[in-house]
Amino acid sequence: MDISIQNFFEAAYYHFNSRHIDALLELMTPDVHWPNGWEGGYVEGPQGVRDYWTRQWKELNPRVNPETVTILPDGRVDVLVYQVVKNLEGQVLFDDFVHHIYTMREGLIQSMEIVDKANE
User: Fold this and answer.
1) 27: helix, strand or coil
2) pTM of the model
3) Which of 12, 69, 76, 105 has the fewest CB atoms within 10 Å, i.e. the most exposed one?
4) What percent of the chain shows pLDDT beyond 70?
């Protein structure tokens, strides 16, 4: 495991949990393809990701913590995360592990997909 990859994703999730959108968007390519895990489908580009997260955080309070970071044989990066999503009143809506599978390009996130552990 390349420690720099682990550090990269630890920083990315720290920025997400701290709601530091600009710092997180700097870790993405200009043509990033990002899953809309809340509403469905995908969003495109940093502005699409920004708009999605801004909408999401007005309704939900997700916290996502990386547990393991694994480089897959095809070069993608599998981050097993522990995710807790609450509504703004504090009610837990989701509490489980999922895989975030990243495609990287030139050291930046080009795309991400969410794979539920049940679908492993």
Assistant:
1) coil
2) 0.92
3) 105
4) 94
